[in-house]
Amino acid sequence: MDEPVTRRYRIPAPAERVRAVVCAPLSWPWLTGSGMSVEFERRDGAIGRYRAERGGVSVPFAVERAARSVTLSLTGEDGAPGDAALTWTVGELPDGTSEVVLTTHGEEPALLGEAWDAADLGGALGAWSRDIDRACEHHDPLGAARALAPMLRERAADSEAARTLDASSVAALRAAGLFRLGPPKPLGGLDARPGVIVSAIAELSRADAAAGWCTFIGNQSAYSAWLEEDVATELAGPDGGLILAGSTAVSGTAEPRGNGTVEVNGRWRFNSGCLHADWLMAGVSVPTAEGAVPMLAFLPWDAVTILDTWHVAGLSGTGSHDLVLDRVEVPRRRLAPLFTAPAAIGETLHKLSPYNIQAVLMAGLPLGIARRALDEVPPADGTTVPLARLETELAAARALVLETVDGYWSELAGAETLPASSGARLALVLRHAADTAKRVTSAAVRLAGPEVTGPGHAALRRCLRDAFATGQHLAVSDDIVARNAARLYPEGAT
Q1: Distance between CA atoms of 46 and 31, rounded to whole angstroms?
Q2: What's the pLDDT tens digit per position in 122-175?
Q3: In whole angstroms, what is the distance from residue 241 CA to residue 233 CA?
Q4: Could you read off the pLDDT of 302-331 as tens digits, one per residue?
Q5: Strand ranges (DSSP E) for 46-97?
């Protein structure tokens, strides 16, 4: 067998950041600049399966992540990994920079070898890391979001092509503290005011709706407040924080076992951000003597199977694949009574119901998408009046959202929960924001005229797709509106 061949790349960036991108195959197309495409196929535990293509040549492969490296193995038609072909190891150097060591074992697939030979890793990752450094100079989430916006805009098309948020965007959001908007303080939560949360998510969504969406989803780590504090801190990620993905839908079961665990089985749809999450959540039905009780199970990222199901037009870059659990044991202490009890820990945000927490985190998303759509239509003869009307409509929707969420904090200053009528308002306001975004983006597309179909308006077309995809979320469905209208006016409910 041939001796291993080693390539070394010096990267002017911290190893933790570099590792996040180099070890993510879906980032390799932009990172190598080689014209290669990479498609995700599935992930079983820590082993992900992908397919690289260029010029009619296709190479199926599997990667296995470790703490400081990733190993690539070529796969056969049955998908089973063969012998290791390539290993990437990222080490930290004494000066705070890093070194990527790429080791080839045996015969190297030409497509992959040529791609890495052409890569300017130091240039690409060095510039990206400097963007993160500038964002980290801001000590408020909105300032950090604004600082990251140019980089997120640049990566938006890559996320859309990969059908998941690009690893460089994830790492930047993590480093800038933007996954700390939702979790309780024991998990590094910032205890940010709601207006700050809404504005930061709106700014991210203005740059790239997938980034805004995955940030709001990742901050559903707020639900860890329903665990006991010692259990919640077990979920801390590599930065002491937590990126969560998964589904609260009760689409599985958790059968008690005699050893302090439950066996979880089920399949969940729409798990945005599942490929980059530290932990996954899954709504489950737990049998008790009094009947089945809905709870939320928390599982480490490498305990689940993820299926390639996210082939969509809108919000394509969110990686909302299906999650499967087949006889997975979960410690009973990692079941949270999300639906039936108040939070065990946390701050003002965690006094809200889980649905209102989701609404606070989500409300900035449609506002940011609509803002970007208007940014893409410069004023011209005949468009100034309709643009002014759209600006006013969007400003009114934003003001309503901010008034509502800031009002919640005032109400909760001297109370543990909101009255039912108050809790109902935000769901209706969120639906109004989503509807406004659809109207504004549709009107922006019409104002752009026939040129909207050209290459110069790709971002505007993406805004339209993303706005309408947002409007399909359960949180803004007709059923949710009807339920909350009945809570707002109980005397009129039938």
Answers
A1: 22
A2: 999 999 999 999 999 999 999 999 999 999 999 999 999 999 999 999 999 999
A3: 9
A4: 999 999 999 999 999 999 999 999 999 999
A5: 47-54, 57-65, 69-75, 81-92
Q: How many CB atoms lie within 10 A of CB 474?
A: 12
Query: Angle formed by the axes of helices 354-362 and 194-207, to 10°?
Result: 50
> Residue 492: which residues within 8 A CB-CB, separation 6 or more?
486
Length of the chain: 494
- Report CA-CA distances (Å) from 141 to 176, 180, 405: 8, 9, 17
What long-range pairs does 254-260 form, CB within 8 A, spacing at least 24? 254/284, 254/285, 254/286, 254/295, 254/297, 254/330, 254/335, 255/287, 256/286, 256/287, 256/332, 257/329, 260/331, 260/332, 260/333
354 contacts: CB under 8 Å, gap ≥ 6: 223, 226, 248, 338, 339
Q: Are residues 222 and 336 in contact, defined by beta-carbon separation less than 8 angstroms?
A: no
- Provide the CA 404 distance to its chain's centre, in angstroms: 25
178 within 8 A of 200, measured Cβ to Cβ: yes
On whether the CB atoms of residues 232 and 225 are closer than 8 A, the answer is yes
In degrees and rounded to multiples of 5, residue 141 shows phi and psi of -60, -40
Q: Residue 416, Cβ neighbours under 10 Å: how many?
A: 7
- For the segment 199-228, what is each residue's pLDDT rounded down to a tens digit? 999 999 999 999 999 999 999 999 999 999
| Token reading at 46 | 């820590």
Tokens of 435: 């509807």
Domains of the chain (ranges plus CATH)? 5-129 (3.30.530.20), 348-492 (1.20.140.10)
Report the candidate in 429, 18, 16 with the shortest Cα–Cα distance to residue 241: 16
Q: How far apart are CA 377 and CA 360, in angstroms?
A: 29
Tokens 């009528």: give the residue. 421
Sign of CA dihedral 174, 364, 357, 409: positive
Q: Which of 318, 275, 291 is nearest to 49 (CA)?
A: 275
